[in-house]
Amino acid sequence: MSLFNTLIPSFTRGTETASAPTQTVRPAYDVKQTPEAYHVTAYLPGVAKDGLEVTAEGTEIRIAGRRAWQQPEGWTPLYRETAGTAYELTLTHDNAIDADKISAELTDGVLRVTLPKAEAVKPRKIAVN
Amino acid sequence: MRIVRYSYPSYRNLSPVTGAFNRAPWSGLENEIDRLFQSVVTDASPRFPVDLYEDKANAYVRAELPGINRADIGVELAEGELTITAARKTPATEGQAEETFNYRRVLTVPEDVQADQISAAYENGVLTVTLPKRAETQPKKITVAVK
After folding, report:
1. How is chain B split into domains, by residue range?
2. CATH of B45-136, one of 2.60.40.2380, 3.20.20.70, 2.60.40.790, 3.10.20.600
3. Domains (range + CATH), chain A
4. Nearest-by-CA chain A residue for B18
5. Model pTM?
6. Which chain A residues contact residue B14 at CB under 8 A?
7. pLDDT of B85-106, one tens digit each?
8. Beta carbon pairs, A and B, within 8 Å
9. First to last CA, chain B
10. ipTM here
11. B126–A46: do the CB atoms touch at under 8 Å?
12. Are strands B81-90 and B73-78 parallel, antiparallel or unpaired?
């Protein structure tokens, strides 16, 4: 078997990567645009402030949130519609935003991220002589 | 009119590792057709996801309702049916008036619930309703002395 694996290494690699990733779900979200900024609203029910991570790197905005609530001891689930999995959302942009001024706010399971547009791409009026 | 609804992320948009490979090739199309018919049939009151739990003393209902003011959530119990109502208000912005979107869901609860002892809490966008069971239906532990 080891000879086989050395000949075709992709077989072993396939099983390693299959077990590694943890399951995440893409939250419901919407993006709105104003002349000043982009507003991302992500619905993350069950996520508290300390379980939330918003990272901006290069042209990617990554939102990762895990649910704060754990099923207490002695509770028996009778019927479930939610999955209890962590949320993950990665959005790409064209780098025309001001990364230093990104702000985020989490209230009652709704995350609002404001991505201000870079000065260079904001609409400006040109005076005609 | 613009409808702002919160749809629960389904298995269709799970991460590609589980989503793309472990399902039948036509399931995506089937889901879309199901969704289309569902949207026609039940468009009036979209459902929000609900979980039911139970322990020895209480039954619990957990409903995911992100971003709703506590004043706009209603919990009612009448004739063995628990009704949860919620209104999502989108604040007025330039060129758009305030919009309200109503959610409503009716659940049948067991008969042994103490209707006057129900409590509800809203935290992180999840509503938890606690329904205490009547004392006589709770499991009792009787210690019998052996002579």
Report:
1. 1-44, 45-136
2. 2.60.40.790
3. 21-70+83-120 (2.60.40.790)
4. A23
5. 0.68
6. 23-26
7. 888 887 777 667 777 888 888 8
8. 94
9. 77
10. 0.71
11. yes
12. antiparallel
CB contact under 8 A, B53 and A75: yes
Residues in B closer than 8 angstroms to A109, CB to CB, are: 64, 66-67, 124-126
Q: Which of B2, B69, B124 to probe the A interface (max A CBs under 10 A)?
A: B124
How do residues A25-70 score in pLDDT, each as one tens digit? 899 899 988 888 899 999 999 999 999 999 988 889 999 998 888 8
Which chain A residue is nearest to residue B17, measuring alpha carbons?
A18
> Among partner residues B6, B9, B124, which is closest to A25 by beta-carbon distance?
B9
Given a cut of 60, whether residue B59 has pLDDT beyond it is yes
CB contact under 8 A, B64 and A109: yes
Determine the distance in angstroms separating the CA of B14 from the nearest CA of chain A, rounded to an integer: 5
Which residues, 6 or more positions from A50, have their beta carbon under 8 angstroms from its beta carbon?
A: A68
Q: Could you tell me which chain B residue has the CA closest to the CA of A51? A: B124
Long-range CB pairs of A33-39, under 8 A, 24+ apart, other chains included: A35/A117, A35/A122, A35/A123, A36/A116, A36/A117, A36/A122, A37/A97, A37/A114, A37/A115, A37/A116, A37/A117, A38/A93, A38/A97, A38/A114, A38/A115, A38/A117, A39/A112, A39/A113, A39/A114, A39/A115
